[in-house]
Amino acid sequence: MNDQKHLKPADNHKDKQEVCARYNKTNVLILGSGSWGTALAIASSKKNNTCLWSRNLEQTNNMLVYRENRVHLPGVKFNDDLLITNNMDHALDFVIADNTQPLIITGVPVSGVSETCSLLSRYSNYIPQNIPVIWTCKGFEPDTSNLIHEIIQRDLRSSKFTHGILSGPSFASEVALDLPTALTIASDSSNLCNIAIDALHNNKLRIYSSSDIIGVEVGGALKNIISIACGISDGLKLGDNARAALITRGLLEIRRFGVSLGSINETFYGLSGLGDLVLTATSNLSRNRNIGIKIGHGNPIAEILNSKITAEGVRCALSVRARARNMNLILPIIEAVCSILFEQTNPMDAVATLLEREARQE
To answer: Which residues form the signal peptide (predicted)?
Structure first.
């Protein structure tokens, strides 16, 4: 790898070794400079030596000049000690500095997980064993319907990394502004959970641990689909009672799907289940709910699907339906959302189909 003295524009003109010596903290590398990666970099830099890696040179230079991410989080200033680079050699030199605890956090979307796995695999000969990597995206791989951990198992060709999933009710803008937030870190490794908690937990950002990786992933992905349903209901002006019913019955569908894949019931009543669902299904900041509202207002589905801000729930709805059908699961709300999004079903007709279902014991 490159000599550490070359870590130049990434370090805001400060020498990495001096930073480490002065603070003696965990070295946290954030891969991806979207809104969530940037927000986590801002949060991490309050406690740790932190480097934000961006693949885009122009964006990197802009962040260095303005000390903020004007594309994704305009107006939120960076800590003076937050390092920024678009050079992966420099970024990994930083995170594996001697006598420091390394931690890599990925801020890439689901579509970037496979490529990030390949990137980390290419550098595996240069790094020590047991580097903790935390993944923060939510959803399914479109072509395969794989969850995040399944993509990692398939594409990360190195045993040097341990893995965790960070999820929960959180908007990037609020994390960046240091507003109170609680998240769950899920991993098979209790050591990784402890490292994540030590690095990120503070009086504004609370981190809880879990060993249920599947449950945390499923909760984070499926709540987006239920949130679209809640948005459709709100757009149709069906009232607060209808939204409450959709949240409650939607949580049951999320739990049913997750348990069938091997997760545990309790996970879905925690932060990454009920907590994330309530936030996304009720907040005006939710892209998924807002897409549902547009559908309820009668906006053309094709226009919504072709939008550059298409929400995660749209991307993973078909994947969830396909896996559910393979497992012979009945998920009426998710089926209804898919029929509206992809089969030109009128939203009121889909609602009528849900209401006509036979009554049963709760």
So the answer is: none
Say if CB 167 and CB 138 are below 8 A apart: yes
Q: Give residue-wise pLDDT tens across range 204-252.
A: 999 999 999 999 999 999 999 999 999 999 999 999 999 999 999 999 9
Buried b (16+ CB within 10 A) or exposed e, 75-101: ebebeebbbbbbbbbbbbbbbbbeebb
The CATH code belonging to domain 18-211 is 3.40.50.720
> Is 288:280 a contact under the CB 8 Å cutoff?
yes
Contact 186, 138 (CB under 8 A): no
Q: How many residues does the structure list for the chain?
A: 362
Question: Quick check: do 18-211 and 221-356 share a fold?
Answer: no
Domain boundaries in the chain?
18-211, 221-356
- 138 in a known ligand binding site: yes
172 labelled binding-site residue = yes
Q: Residue 285 contacts by C-beta under 8 Å, 6 or more apart in sequence?
A: 171, 173
CATH of segment(s) 221-356? 1.10.1040.10
**Residues whose CB falls within 8 Å of the CB of residue 11, separated by 6 or more in sequence, listed in order:** 19, 51, 83, 85, 94
The predicted model scores a pTM of: 0.91
Segments of the chain scoring below 70 in pLDDT: 1-24, 308-310
Of 223, 237, 294, 308, which residue is the catalytic one? 223
- Average per-residue pLDDT for the chain: 91
pLDDT tens digits for 250-260?
999 999 999 99
| 223 tagged catalytic | yes
Q: Residue 244 has what pLDDT?
A: 96
> Does 235 show up as a binding residue in the annotation?
no
